[in-house]
Predict the structure.
Amino acid sequence: MPRFSLVGTSRAPVAAAALFTLSLSHAARADEGGISFWLPGLYSSFAATPAEPGWSFATIYYHPSLSAGADKGFPRGGQVDVGIEGRGDLVAFGPTYTLAQPVFGGQLSFSVLGIGGRNQATVDATFTGPNGNQISGERSEALTAFGDVIPQATMKWNDGVNNYMAYAAAGIPVGAYDPDRLANLGLGHGAFDMGGGYTYLDSQTGREASVVLGFTYNFENPDTDYQSGIDAHIDWGASQFLNKQLFVGVAGYYYQQLTGDSGDGATLGDFKSRVAGIGPQLGYLFPIGEKMQGVVSAKAYWEFAAQNRPEGWNAWLTFAISPAAPKTN
């Protein structure tokens, strides 16, 4: 597999910039609140870039701040919440193992992600359903716990400046979840997501652009008899290396629910949701000893065009460690 190098270098620091996408997967939050299994903004630049074989590890801090007005309702456990505000301080962490031996001409990786942290949520009022019978007023809750476990498999191929990716991931609903709680870190149901992506990376100019398209199938929540529809999502990013260690760029996403929600708990009908986001990103690559390398990256998104979904802003901070590319003369 060809090794990437930037102008004036003889090794492949770009592999570390791609690492944080290998170990990331889907931070799980309850679909019925208008928030999907797929976390928009998960992928950005270097999404399809191959990395070095071996073990790697990533830790991601994620801070969302979301709200929706009192004129918008969100189903939860057979009830409807209005006037939602929420914020979180979440940490996702997990290892990735990348095989050295090619599979179908590409690079195969396996990862497992765990999630933990604190969620806070407030609603102005809760109703029993679309008839508007109020059963409670303003209410706030906070929860510190662990979320679901998410395994993922990724295949990547490289052909010069062109890089291709296919992935599949699943949500195992073992995280903290209670249909009567406002704040949860678990889905309450299983989910399956798969898709593919492309990265253009010119190592001579340090220019890069990536796009990832995926689809999510949600299983029924057995506690609420609620099944969210099939979702589509596009994440993208573009960046420029300013030198062999520092890159800057822009990233964005678009999420659209394709089919409606269903089940006895879907009191608001189809409830198809949508949201878009855009913001800056930057990253810094550095050696760790002689055999490892790391990357610290940050990005933030401002959301707009939301439908049946809270909107606001979110920020990401990632620290990842991976094997360094072999030195060449």
